[in-house]
Design a protein that fits this description.
about 35% helix, alpha/beta, two-stranded antiparallel ribbon
Length: about 260
């Protein structure tokens, strides 16, 4: 197994956390990057066609600042634009960004439900995107992993399945904390987001191994390319690959399986 990614010093970027992700799919639906997100959505569906169900999808990364929130929120928008009833869940309880992305209050959210008797239907919020609702993180707790591994979280995901066509979970990086690990049994598949020239080879390898050890279906690997020629002021382009073991797309760090 080899991953042909450049090794560079890890740098944490708090821009998305502070200002929210750029929803190019909503602001400029005809932009080339918006089209790539729609292609990503379609290929996720193709990758999940062999599964019994594809309803709850986890977006994660190996490291912080790899772009998982930008990818997950934009793909959620494309599902909503396709007529699906979508719930976007900010399960990154340590560095939440959904409230900034969708301009929502974050006084109540996922942590409120998990730590009290708050009801999901009273906590999710509508957004400016038709068919898309958001469950923000809620107040940052001292024990994120414990909350996410609770029986109440499992019950909440079941409620989500019963009330939405697609559930998108924005989950912390696999290598940073254990939060993603405890959520893996609850999802139908995962998308792994990486950044060309930033994501360390060893961290990517360990992340893939962790997903495979927990029998989590890897639906695709998205390679974020910062400063691509088609960024149009957004600061990144996207290449993408589906089905672990191969990849394609401009600016894509090829993944090989031996």
């Amino acid at each position: 197994m080899s991953f042909n990614f450049l090794k560079k010093k890890h740098v944490v970027n708090s821009e998305t956390q502070d200002n929210g992700a750029r929803l190019v799919t909503f602001v400029e639906p005809k932009h080339v990057i918006s089209e790539q997100f729609r292609t990503l959505r379609t290929n996720i569906e193709f990758a999940g066609a062999a599964l019994d169900k594809l309803q709850v999808v986890m977006f994660t990364s190996a490291e912080m600042s790899d772009g998982k929130t930008t990818v997950s929120s934009n793909v959620a928008v494309t599902w909503a634009q396709a007529g699906k009833n979508v719930l976007y869940v900010d399960a990154d309880l340590r560095r939440p960004a959904a409230h900034s992305t969708f301009d929502l209050l974050n006084t109540r959210g996922l942590t409120t439900i998990l730590a009290s008797n708050a009801q999901p239907k009273d906590t999710v919020q509508k957004t400016f995107v038709e068919n898309l609702e958001v469950l923000t993180s809620g107040p940052v707790p001292p024990n994120p992993a414990e909350l996410l591994s609770s029986a109440r979280m499992a019950s909440l995901v079941e409620w989500m399945r019963n009330n939405y066509d697609v559930v998108v979970l924005d989950v912390p990086p696999v290598m940073a904390v254990t939060d993603a690990h405890v959520l893996m049994p609850l999802v139908d598949g995962a998308i792994l987001v990486t950044t060309f020239g930033k994501t360390l080879k060893v961290n990517l390898q360990r992340t893939v191994e962790t997903l495979r050890l927990t029998d989590t279906k890897i639906l695709g690997i998205v390679q974020r390319v910062r400063g691509g020629k088609n960024d149009a002021g957004y600061g990144y382009g996207y290449g993408y690959g589906y089905g672990y073991g191969y990849g394609y797309g401009y600016g894509y760090g090829h993944v090989e399986s031996n």
